[in-house]
Each structure stands twice: as C-alpha cells, then as structure tokens.
Write a structure and sequence with these properties.
Largest sheet: 4 strands, antiparallel
Helix content: 25-40%
Mean pLDDT: 91
Number of helices: 8
Low-confidence stretches: none
Distance between the termini: 36 Å
C-alpha cells in the first residue's frame, strides 16, 4: 500500500468513510479537507450501471457548468477561411488545417479541446489514433464538429465539459476549483448530474448511478449519496 502524506492523513481524518454525504455536504467537506496548498481542482467520479462494451449503453455527453470550471481551456480549431477568422476572433488558441494536422500526427497534443468544421473532418479523422485515446477527437455529438466554430469556442472557454464512460463503467469530470464557494460547486454538480441522468440508456437495468465520489486533486474521496438526484445548495 502506498504511504500517504501527513497532509492527506489529516484530510482523511475529517471524513467518515462509512457515510454517504449529500452533495452540498460533500463539496463543503472537499474544500475543508483539501491537503494541497494550491487551488486544487474538484473532481467527481460516478460508477454507472451500464456495459460500455454495448453501443446502446454508451454514456457520452456535454454540459455547460453554470459557474465554469475555473480552468482556462486551450482550444484548437481546424478551420479555413472565414471560419478560421471567426475562431480567432472568438479566442481560439490554435487555428489551422493541414499544418495542425501534420503537427498532431507527429505527436503534439498540447491543448485541451478540439473543434473542426465539417468539411475538414475527412482529414481530421485520420488523427483518431492520436486524439481518440485522449478524448480530443471532434465529435458532432459533443458540438465540436460544427460550422459555428465561434459558439463552440465560447462554450468551451465558458465552462463546457464533455464526459464519456470508460471501459470500467466509470465517468469522470471536474466541477470547479477549491476556491469556488460550496454553493457554486454544488450547482455545478447538479447541472452535470442532471445531464448524466438524462442520458441514461434505456437498455440500462437496475441502479444507474451505483457510486458517486467527490475529491480534490490530491485529496481523499468523499462518498456522495447516489440516491440524491435533486441537489440542494444548503443543508
């Protein structure tokens, strides 16, 4: 077993490992028990009752967090002409076409999200082996293959997150920073939870959200009551 730091142990001592906390309690405790000296990210993990090996049980989506993520995302846009100009005006960090495709094919992935116009997806699709495993491949289902690149850039910069269940049926996403007040974190959690619930596959049987955990970047996990689907911002 890995040896934990004294800061981690002190944080863990504040948490009742046998208790399922309400979402507002959990994010409050995450803030209070954060062992890091920096402004850590607050993360959520769900264990879903789905079989991601089956196409009709894949859970993938996006949500605009009402208070953003606290992170400045670096957005890359595959576009040319007027669309490229619009992406630049919207604040995209990298804009191009063949030049960026070649650079990424060589292994460069120093960005957080990618957007592409539909006409370039024939070329961008060849980057699947590089972008796919990093969850960076533009996809029309997440609004990142679009002619309205300015809106896509603004959404991502404004706090839009995307999520996808992994092969172990886990779903991970961030809801903000420790510096956020607990109400904003709880409201971000509620927005993401609502979308995850909306996306429940009809083929999923039994309990859908089997386990929910909130944690800071290097902090201990805090179990959230998976039965609470109406999140209150006070207790």
């Amino acid at each position: 077993m890995a040896k934990r730091s004294k800061a981690y142990e002190a944080a863990a001592a504040k948490i009742d490992a046998e208790k399922f906390y309400a979402p507002f309690e959990a994010v409050t405790l995450a803030k209070d028990s954060n062992p890091s000296k920096f402004d850590a990210t607050v993360e959520v993990a769900f264990r879903l009752g789905v079989d991601p090996r089956k196409a009709d049980q894949m859970v993938r989506g996006t949500v605009n967090l009402p208070h953003g993520t606290g992170k400045v995302s670096r957005v890359l846009v595959f576009a040319t002409g007027d669309k490229a100009d619009a992406a630049i005006a919207a604040g995209a960090d990298f804009v191009g076409s063949d030049d960026l495709i070649e650079k990424i094919a060589a292994g460069w992935t120093d960005f957080d999200a990618a957007v592409a116009t539909p006409d370039l997806m024939g070329k961008v699709g060849r980057l699947g082996k590089v972008l796919g495993p990093r969850n960076l491949m533009p996809n029309p289902k997440t609004g990142t293959v679009t002619a309205d690149v300015a809106k896509a850039v603004n959404d991502i910069k404004g706090g839009k997150i995307d999520f996808r269940v992994d092969k172990h049926s886990n779903l991970h996403f961030i809801i903000g920073k420790v510096s956020f007040d607990a109400i904003k974190l709880a409201e971000n959690y509620a927005a993401a939870l609502e979308e995850v619930l909306r996306l429940k596959p009809s083929a999923s049987k039994g309990r859908y959200i089997q386990k929910a955990t909130v944690a800071t970047t290097f902090g201990p996990g805090i179990s959230v009551d998976p039965n609470v689907t109406k999140v209150l911002t006070e207790v």
